[in-house]
Amino acid sequence: MTPLAGAILLALAALTVLAIIWIPRRARTAARRAVHQFGVRLDRYKLMSRRVIRGELLRDPAIGDALEQHCRTRGLSQLEARVRVEQYVEEIVPFFNVLSYYRVGYNLARALLRLLYRTSSEYQDRESLNAIPRRDVVVYLMNHRSNADYVVVAFVLARAVSISYAVGEWARVWPLEYVFKSFGAYFVRRRYREPLYHTVLERYVQLITRNGVTQGIFLEGRLSRDGALGPPKLGLLDYIARTLRDPAFDRDIWLVPVALNYDRVLEDRSLIQELLEDGARPPRWRQLAGVTRFLALNLARLLTGSLRRYGRVAVNFGTPLSLRRWVAAHPDLLDLSRAERLPRLERLARELMDRIAGIMPVTPVPLVAAALLSFGRDLVRLDDLFERLDQYRDHLMATAAKLAHADQGVSGLLERARKALDLRRLVVAEGEALVILPGQRPLLEYYANSIQHLLPAPRPSGGHPMLDPDTSLPRLPRAG
FRET label pair with 203: which of 51, 196, 356, 448, CA 20 to 30 Å apart? Predict the structure, then answer.
């Protein structure tokens, strides 16, 4: 777990557990009051008893067939296989709690986000989003920059809808597991290949989809290690799409692309370190030490009045895509075998990733990082930097990109970014120039990579050797 997950989620866990344990008998009245106050669209199926959902899954014919197959291939008894299915169901199925989500979760999220960031959200096509029929199902497909993504998107959408997230195994520790389940999240085992488990997971995802539960899925499947968008993962998208095979399901499923970007990702150094060390994660004691240091340092800054926000976190919502229409344009796709189906479904996933890339918010730090690195040198004159930023800003405005603080001009963008760069000691002022410290270049690349696809190619240097890029400088490797 990264320092961000430890710092934010442990605090969230403690408060949520206490709130749920000490909920008064008038909890239902308080819950109704919370829903009324937020004016939220609450998916009724989230309030269904876990016992009922568990019973539906255990009676599911597809799970029964998978159980029989598991017994034959593994040489297990019916009882042993049944116990395993029940373990999977217990692990996956959440127990949504209105007070936990809207009283504890929302208020803590608001306090933490206001403390750490300036938060903004925009809509590329609000009319299309508002036109989605109320009975249809909405799935938000997001890029994954930080563990804070869960908090940010849920906070931004809190007054419209509550989201059930697909959460990785990293959160399956007490009390985080208890907290996420009380928020309606369900757990997904990454890189776990057992067919029986995937049948249980698929049928649960299709069960909540048929019943109109709004879901949030990180299409890349994991946090970006190099800052750029990764390739899409198809598992959950395939499960959701195959819900349309049910003849009794007559709703449409709307896939809404969501792009997030930050001026500072609190896990950035940990993620880069994993990339540099070929995916090796630090030991638990080092993670705990990082969490402790993060909490102590920021608590000291808060008490001394020197705590500064880490810049902007921006969320952009794109134009929704009708899954039923897309499937109708690819007849018989969902009836193909998995081996034949997934390569064709990947076209849909890549189209959605392209939509996410197209609405990626451009915040000051990634923009200035890209401008600094575009010269390929460790020393950049301020005049040259202003000129490059002006070029980038004009290009972004002309292409209708989502540029934060667009109305403040180049000097305003640079001033906001300089605060973050100075705080992190990524660059040093040297007269009328900025010096990029060699050891900090990979971190600048991490931020620049998030928006590089939106920027024009650097102009040629003109052939002067002093202006040619220095290829010996440290580089951040790209994630595989």
Answer: 356
Amino acid identity for residue 116 in this structure: L
- Strand-strand pairing, 215-218 and 164-167: parallel
Q: Read out DSSP for 60-81? A: -HHHHHHHHHHHHHHT--HHHH
Give the Cα separation of 360 and 363 in Å (integer). 9
Structure tokens at 116: 């750490």
Q: How confident is the model at residue 52 (pLDDT cuts 50, 70, 90)?
A: very high
| Helix orientation angle between 364-373 and 382-398, rounded to the nearest 10 degrees | 120
Domain boundary among 312, 343, 358: 358
- Rg (the chain; Cα; Å): 24
371, 353: one domain: no
Q: State how beta strands 186-187 and 137-142 pair.
A: unpaired
Task: Please give the mean pLDDT across all residues of the chain.
Answer: 86
Confidence of residue 464 (pLDDT cuts 50, 70, 90): very low
Q: Which residue has the higher pLDDT, 106 or 319?
A: 319
Lowest mean pLDDT among 120-124, 166-170, 260-264: 166-170
Q: From start to end of 12-124, where are the E strands?
A: 118-123
CATH number at residue 232: 3.40.1130.10
Q: What is the DSSP letter of 477?
A: P
The verdict on whether omega for the bond into residue 175 sits within 30 degrees of 0, i.e. cis, is yes
Q: Hey, what are 253's tokens?
A: 């499923």
Residue 242: CB atoms within 10 A of its CB come to: 20
Which structural domain range is residue 409 located in? 364-467
The set of long-range contacts for 271-275, using a CB threshold of 8 Å and a minimum separation of 24, is: 271/2, 271/223, 271/224, 271/225, 271/446, 272/225, 272/226, 272/442, 272/443, 272/446, 272/476, 274/225, 275/225, 275/226, 275/476, 275/477, 275/479
Is 57 found in the same domain as 98? yes
- The pTM score is 0.87
Q: What CATH number is given to the structural domain containing 377? A: 1.10.10
Nearest-angstrom CA–CA distance, 16 and 459:
53
One DSSP character per residue, 388-434 reads HHHHHHHHHHHTT--BTTGGGHHHHHHHHHHHHHHHHT-EEEETTEE
| Contact predicate 278/160, CB 8 Å | no
